């Protein structure tokens, strides 16, 4: 299953956006209002839970400075990645596109598509406020 949020313009350079996302503590400010738990485990890993959903641990998987950051599930039970692609528009503005890719059976994909689409949409919208 592959989902992507609409591209969002951010009034920061690609370096500033990348540095913000590369610090996992900052993801707390991007989370939806219905977050019930957020905990930094270490500099590469954090745990979060939305009301009514199980806890999820995300960890940094891969990064290309100033242009891409890939986070992935720390558990193999729900294998997925959350990718931020960052394109610099000018010195003080960049464009960010968040995408989600997961390997789920058809039933699971049907159940999680709506909540995940909403989740990455909220993360994307909140990026414009950094």
Automatic annotation (TrEMBL):
Name of the protein in question: SRPBCC family protein
Source organism of the structure: Arenibacter aquaticus
